Amino acid sequence: MQDIITNLTQAIRSKDSRIGVIGLGYVGLPLAVTAARRGFDVLGVDIDPKKMRALDAGKSYIEAVSNDDLAEAQSRMSWSTDFADLATCQAVIICVPTPLTQHREPDLTYVLDTTRQIAANITPGTLVVLESTTYPGTTRDELIPVLEAGGLKSGETVFVGFSPEREDPGNAKFRTATISKIVAGEGKAAGAMVKALYEGIVDAVVEVPDTATAEAVKITENIFRAVNIALVNELKLIYDRMGIDVWDVIDGAATKPFGYMPFYPGPGLGGHCIPIDPFYLTWKAREFEAPTRFIELAGEINTAMPRHVVDRVAQALDSVCGRGLSGSHVLVIGAAYKKNIGDVRESPSMRLMELLTERGAVVDYHDLHVPEIPKMRMYPALNGKTSADLSSLDEFDLILIATDHDDVDYSALVESGKPIVDTRNAIARRKLDGATVIKA
Q1: What is the pTM of this model?
Q2: Residue 433 pLDDT > 90, yes or no?
Q3: Torsion angle, alpha carbons of 374, 28, 170, 139, to 10
């Protein structure tokens, strides 16, 4: 067994090893490309044939990875839909989704199905690392039993670790290689391997005692954001009733050089992390009879924000246009969940369009990053809807800014003379005058 540990660790450290990255989405593709550019031989595995065709054509489908990045990595990178190819890898990294069920309980289907495929296809003496965000204890209590049911033995023929993804789509300041990585292994040998692996991929690695701690680190990071966003969303409602602009309050508070970190309100939470991950911990906490009141309250506040915004739209139409929401034509600016990206996962814009339509409005959207809304399980009525052109603003009764992309012509919105409901403070930040702006 010591020979297996020594040989695998040395192969990883010398980059004389092949890494398999399973799931070539927003996390997996940047990781695979980064590892290849840092000198590893990389195999990307994904069940989506559309991704394979794009990669074959040298086309990236992820904004964080340019076509040039992909071209630079291609000499050391290959891709496949066949899990049997994992037999050629000495390390395998899992980057698949961890969504919630309809009852807001963890759905580990993708992780466990992937782990079964790994157990059936890897050779003994392989390192397996989970990157998907999950509740503390998943690696130890879920992954290892599946691997061992497939005939492997943790710490002997398979070595298991956890290193949470920390991607921030649209953030040009940080890329995969420059974001510090939390790492942990199940046992000393696995810990050393995981550390060696990521030291060869990213600039900085931070080792924690065990995989449960690493899982808790990731959950804590996202809960911190969810709770603080909920706080400013609630403050927005309170200060609005007092006639105080919450954006001015936040800007003022942000001048304090210590003890304060600015968070900003919005129309709701979106993305693959913040709206979902906190509920992994609330679910797990029930096992220990531990209350999670802050987390659950934050979820209630953030989930309620789209309805608040739609109410503000209705009030604006009534007070400015003298008409009701039913039959009014509303243009939603932004379909993505955050600025300057094309990711619509959990986007509050989808919920806003759904609620507006339910109340009788005619709804269109404008988003150059999302020319067409992809097929989604939760919003089938929006599937295939295409972005409207800003050249026809006259046909709309009201403009709702849900996502403040930089490439939007905000001057044109103001010059249209239409009332604007602004959930992102986009108009005021650009110091544009002459519009009827209602902040929401």
Answers
A1: 0.92
A2: no
A3: 100
CA-based nearest residue to 176, from 184, 162, 164, 185: 164
Q: How far apart are CA 369 and CA 343, in angstroms?
A: 8
Q: Are 43 and 18 in contact (CB under 8 A)?
A: yes
Residue type, 392: S
Residues of the chain with CATH 3.40.50.720: 2-211, 266-439
Residue 438, strand partner residues = 421
More confident of the two residues 364 and 101: 364
pLDDT tens, position by position, 19-31: 999 999 999 999 9
Tokens standing for residue 238:
């309170």
Going along 250-291, which residue ranges are E strands?
A: none
**Architecture of the domain delimited by 266-439:** 3-Layer(aba) Sandwich (3.40)
Instruction: Enter the CATH code of domain 2-211.
Output: 3.40.50.720
Catalytic annotation, residues: 273
pLDDT value at residue 1: 65
CA distance 435 to 422: 11
Q: CA angle, 25 as apex, 355 and 104 as ends, to 5°?
A: 45
- Say how far apart CA 62 and CA 72 lie, in whole Å: 15
